[in-house]
Amino acid sequence: MKSQHQVILSLGSNQGNRLENIESCLQLIHQEVGTVIRVSKLYETPSWGFESAAFYNCVLVMHTFDTPHKVLSQILKAEKKLGRIRTDASGYQSRIIDIDLIAFDEEIIDSEKLQVPHPLMQNRNFVLLPFQDLNLDWKHPIFKKSISELLQISPDESVCKVVQDLKSPLQNIPLEKYNYIAFEGNIGAGKTTLTTKIAEDFNAKTVLERFADNPFLPKFYKDQNRYAFPLEMSFLADRYKQLSDDLAQFDLFKDFIVADYHIFKSLIFAKITLAEDESRLYRNLFDIIYREMQKPDLYIYLYQNTTRLLQNIKKRGRSYEQNIAEDYLDKINTGYLDYIKSQTDLNVLIIDVSDRDFVKKHEDYLYILDEIQKKINQSQLK
Question: Which of the following is catalytic: 66, 98, 156, 260?
Fold first, then answer.
C-alpha cells in the first residue's frame, strides 16, 4: 500500500493583512495541495536579508501522495492565486505570501528547481522555531541533527515573537471523540486505503484485516463449494481474536482506533457463500461471539458501484480475485445494505464513493472528511 509523504512547508507574509494572508494560505494548501495535519504557532520576525516590515511566519506539516516536484508546482500556483507576483529581480523582497518547501520526508534532493532540505533552513530562526512547535521525530538528513539541535547552533540572532496559536483545518473534525471507528465496504471499495490514511492524518491506531494470511482464500475462489465453510470459520476466528486483542489494548500515543472492518461482515459473507445447513451452524456460533464484541462508535460504509469495484479489483492485481463474478459483488452489497437497515442502535454513515478517487484526487478525500464532519455535527445536535 502506498504510504503518504510528510511535507514541511514554511509560510511568511509582510504585506497587507498578514494574519489573514497566512490563514488564507493554510486553507488553500489544505484544499488544493495536501492534508494539513498540524500548524505551528504564529511568529512575528524581522525581515531576513533586507530592510522591510516584519513578517508573520509559521510552519506546517502536510501529508500527500504526490512527488516533491508536484508539490513545488502546487505551492507556486497557490502563491499566485493568493496574489504573489514573482519577478526576476535579485535579492529578498517584501511579499504578500511566501511558501517554502522545507523538507520532504527525510529525502535529499538537489535539482535545478528544488533543493530539499531547504539549504538555508538551519540558519533561519523563523523556520526552526515554528518547526520545533510541530514536535516531529525528524532529523536533518545531511547534518544528522534534530530541530532543537539545529536551533542551538543557529547563527541567526534575530528575535522571533509568538503572536498567537493557529488552528489546523483538521481540528474541525474531532474524530477523537469516538473510541472506535469502523470503515466497511465491498471487495475493492478502498476501505483499507482510506482507513490507513485516516489513521495517519488523525493519529489513530489501525486494525487492518489479515486476509492475506488466510490460506483458504485462494482455494475458495477456485472452488467455492468446497472451501466456503472453512474459509468463513477461519475468518470469523481471526477477526474475533484480532478485534478482541486490539480493542482491549489502548495505545497511549494514539487518539482512537480505526478498523477496516466490523465483525458483522463475517455473517454477511457467510450468508452468501454457505449452504443452508452450514449457514445455520455458522449463525449459532456467530451469535455467541457477536454478543461479546464491542460495537463501533461510528460505522462508515463506503458504497461503490459494481463496475468500479471490478476495475479496482483488476487494478490491485491479486491473482485469486481476478475471476470474482459481478453478481457475487452485488450480493455482498445487498447484504451490507440489508444489515445497515436492520441496525437501530448503530451510528451509521453511508458515503457514495463510486465516482471518487481519494488517493489521486485530494478533493475527493476532503469530500469524505466533510461527510464525516456533517455526521459528527448531526450527532452533537441530538
Answer: 260
